[in-house]
Write a structure and sequence with these properties.
This protein is an alpha+beta fold and 194 residues long. The chain is 36% helix and 27% strand. It is built from three helices and seven strands; from the N terminus they run αβββββαββα. Strand 3 and strand 4 (99-107) form a beta hairpin. The radius of gyration is 22 Å and the shape is elongated. The relative contact order is 0.14.
Length: 194
């Protein structure tokens, strides 16, 4: 057998063994990785709507679920003792560095309960400050009847203060919160999606 065939056969065997090992590893870790993703999503829901004990996924039924700045990926009804206490929204918006994943909780009184930032690609030290509680807690208790806006100065009742040097990131989060609020007011309050 020529040397070139021997070398080719050896490389083929090594590649086949490596591919088999990678495939087995993928199968072994696929379940735990998916469970971690589910646990993280449940923790985000519990963080933004802490009164809820259970969450039931709700169908998304309207074009109101997206606009040119954001889109709703998932909606869950937050329940406590079989009573609806609010909704959580998983929203993707366009930040400065790419997509920003946001979880928003809105109670049945029409107020934002909480906002949590998930995966994002915002600039470390600037836009990445959107994950800090000093920023996200500004939304707590805000009425959703009118859109919330972003300001660089001292915020008023329906405003949150932008992160200095990260206005695009601040607006991205706000776009997600306002989209969730719009969907809540226009669809969920009238009984849609349930």
């Amino acid at each position: 057998m020529p040397d070139i065939l021997k070398v080719g056969l050896k490389l083929f065997i090594i590649t086949a063994i490596a591919a088999l090992i990678l495939g087995v590893t993928h199968l072994a870790t696929q379940g735990p990785i998916e469970q971690q993703r589910i646990n993280a999503a449940n923790l985000a829901k519990q963080t933004v709507l802490p009164q809820a004990e259970d969450f039931n996924e709700v169908d998304i039924v309207s074009e109101t679920a997206q606009n040119d700045k954001a889109r709703i990926l998932e909606i869950s009804a937050g329940m406590k003792d079989n009573e609806l206490i609010g909704y959580t929204f998983k929203v993707i918006t366009n930040g400065y560095g790419g997509d920003v994943e946001i979880t928003v909780g809105i109670n049945m009184d029409g107020k934002v309960e909480g906002v949590q930032i998930g995966e994002h690609s915002e600039t470390p030290g600037l836009g990445a400050k959107i994950i800090e509680k000093t920023f996200t807690e500004q939304y707590h208790g805000k009425e959703i009847e009118n859109p919330i806006s972003v300001t660089k100065s001292e915020p008023g009742d329906q405003e949150i203060q932008a992160i200095s040097g990260a206005t695009v990131s601040s607006h991205a989060v706000n776009d997600g919160v306002n989209l969730a609020a719009q969907y809540f007011l226009e669809i969920l309050l009238s009984g849609g999606g349930q």
